[in-house]
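User: Predict structure, ligand guanosine-5'-diphosphate.
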Amino acid sequence: LSATLDEAWAKMKGVADLSPENIKAPLKDVRRALLEADVSLPVVRRFIKKVEERAPGVKVTKGVEPSQELVKLVADELCTLMGGVGADGINFREEGNGPTVILMAGLQGVGKTTACGKLALSLKKQNKTCLLVATDVYRPAAIDQLKKLGSDLNVPVYDEGANASPPSIAANGVAEAKKRGDIDVVIVDTAGRLNIDEALMNELIATKMSTQADETLLVVDAMTGQEAATLTKSFADAIDITGAILTKLDGDTRGGAALSVREVSGKPIKFTGVGEKMDALDPFYPERMTSRILGMGDVVSFVEKAQEAVKQADAEQMKEKIMKATFDFDDFLKNMDMMGDMGSMSQLMKMIPGANKLSDKDMQEAEKSFKIAKSLIMSMTPEERKYPDMLVASSTAESRRNRIVKGAGKTEEDLAELIVMFGGMRVKMQQMSAAMGSEAAKLGLQ
Ligand code: GDP
Ligand code: MG
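Assistant: Predicted complex:
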């Protein structure tokens, strides 16, 4: 019964928390959506488990169903999981350390050679000069394919035909780039196989070593679906990839492979292939990928709007208070108590940008003067707190001040300091109120 009452109460207040019970059904939908998007099963399981741990206790936004709040939480989690710091771009070698070397790895037909060309074009647009290196000696057509791309893009291609070993061709390619001196980036195209095998991995390891590659990018066909997880694991374990390129996203796949690749390898997806043409290379956008994989975009944007509205309402309330400019000693006290709640003054100051320039001594001083202020205010009458002017501009001002100082066990100077501090704060409040008024007017809020 009490649980039911709690729930009824929560409903009346319009605020509930996510709980193990109310996330059960919507999580099933999420699970289904992820599987339909071809995220691999173990990845889905781990992800759902994480959400099950995280969700309970999360506040449900006013006007939003718990199930909708959960979907938004899931979308945020997905986005975080697939994004992360430094998620995109190539890590270039520092100037003077020779060309940056990028190795393309992956199974046959996934789009490695195409990605080499696309990347070269994209780098060229950033005013970087590239050298492409052809090491796919198993398919003569592959070397021609890269040479053709190079001549179309006007990017030099290094090759030794089909009779040398890939690690040595690659090393010679890097040496050539160094010799030329005008190459910023060497992109090494490699051979793929239909299946992961030891020969392929060993060759990649040797090539990576012979070139001292800075980036080893795993090229994954988005249509690989469920298989993407095991595939990624094999490559990541064997050659320690630095990132991935997800190709063929122009197809109608939901892109679950993106989540699998990221979750299994822990490495960012740096680019996406979105077509056969050379300019069809995009950066990876975690938000877009999230809505592609999860769907439910309408729910997510509904919850976002509701969250925005609640934030707005809070801000409006605050604005009203400030606009009224009825800031008195009670508010002053409340303010200080709020600071007290958040830990000591010095802790708080550390969080304020700019304020961290204050020395520990400064902060101790500030803390001390706030303590004094507090005890002075405590010994004011409610009337005096409400009408601070009574302490300066009335016939009884002096006797009031004497009483307060005595009651608090402080000095006249202490009280004078408080009155000055308070006056300064009040002026600041009024300035803020005026500023907010004009801001609001600009936004048409008034
Ligand atoms: P590799 O064997 O890994 O080098 O694969 P290729 O680069 O030769 O590409 C194999 C096929 O996939 C070619 O027909 C490419 O045009 C095509 N391809 C590569 N990337 C994309 C892409 O992002 N979208 C589409 N639709 N096709 C692609
Ligand atoms: Mg190829």
